[in-house]
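TL;DR need structure tokens for one chain.
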Amino acid sequence: MIDLNPELLAAAAESKAWPFEEAKKIVERYKTTGLPETVLFETGYGPSGLPHIGTFGEVARTTMVRHAFHVLTEGKVKTRLLCFSDDMDGMRKIPENVPDRAALEPYLHMPLTSVPNPFGGDYESFGHHNNAMLRRFLDTFGFDYEFASATDYYKSGKFDAMLLKAAEKYDDIMKVMLPTLGEERQATYSPFLPISPKSGRVLYVPMKNVDAKAGTITFDDEDGAETTLSVTGGRVKLQWKPDFGMRWAALDVDFEMFGKDHQTNAAIYDRICVILGGRAPEHFVYELFLDENGQKISKSKGNGLTIDEWLTYAPTESLGLYMFQRPRQAKKLYFDVIPKAVDEYYSFLAAYPKQDWKNRLGNPVWHMHNGNPPVIDLPVPFSLLLNLVSASNAHDKSVLWGFISRHAPGVTPETHPELDKLTGYAVRYFDDFVKPTKVFRAPDDVEREALAALEQALAALPAGSDGEAIQNASLNVARQIERYQDHSKQSPEGGPGVSVAFFQMIYQVLIGQERGPRFGSFAALYGIAETRELIRKALEGKLAA
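>> reply
TL;DR here they are.
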């Protein structure tokens, strides 16, 4: 249900948030003809491997643009989101992340929906399995979409009229394609890819004849026999670049986003769409996701994070936030980004009720939750939970709840289910990614002096002191030690400020990590007595040992 209050509509018209900027392009598209009854948004998916987070991101981002369009048009125009799978493509190489790769070798170059499913189960093919994996997650996240299979569309005849038009416009399509190819490729190229009636493979062969009137193509099959096939009924498919434009024309697509690797081909897709009598959709080009080594994420390589891996350690909303932020900027997508994404999501959520409409429409949570963000009280951030797990060596979330309930009376798993969910994620993330990399170091003489003074300062605090009092006490300790004085800053008393090196030292020595959240908040949650004991263990050499 769209809130049509005047303040929202006015803010939407002026909003610079990228989903609104894209939605305005669609409105402008129909400025002279008037808005149609239905606007079609589309996303494409190549099921050559298991779906990865980039695939999810395309659907999530398109959904955000779709919702912004709903607001701009005051809900008066129907919209559809079609998730289209290119599952009729030939399997050109065997993915590295499938079991028994050798068993798939006989099926190279067959349509993905003709390749046996290497994962077992009831799915009739590799393509059907990968499509199901995509739909499973999209359904879990609650997307409103329709799923479409290229195999189904080609075989059912939904593309027949456009394929016949492609045969009619064969020469025009070749004029677009040939200048983009090398000399050798030009000699054999055809926009039509026949499916061999003998081997079942997708053939990259030159055409001996294209009969537009009969709607047929003639070519030599793999055994050299001259073969004529109708271009209709799923006997033939188009090369991927002409296929893009054909699909846009056949389905009358209004908006499609794609990765930067498609950007140089976008003009080709557009021209072919127009040749076939369609109107090219509005585009949005996003940057690609990279793995921790800066390499492009690939379904066939299986590098980077999978959807299931992210959701093992964090809620789906954190993933939605990561997709919203800076879509035109390349971002690394690996496990280290998860904690920050979780905390940022809840920070944006907490800020939302206090904002005016202009700032609300720039807040990611408005776009992620279709204009209706939930109200969630989260008394402890995720990063603090991770450090609590690290300090307490907790193996299950019940240990964390002992600290949380003492720190925040009345806060329980029942009263704060969202926090309870995060405690489970924190334990899991710590065990798998933080614990194996923890390296405690022994303090040097200056650091021993600083830690001893910090332990005494904590001992002098009244029982129940809050994070702010603990933070101030630790700052007072650091200001007295020359190594930790930062003369580029000024303390409230007029002296030098405190270098971040002081708190880095605390986390390296006490927690075995390079960094952590605000120390005062951590010590308040963990407990002053427990923090003092941690310092004593470090000074006795028990942690580094």
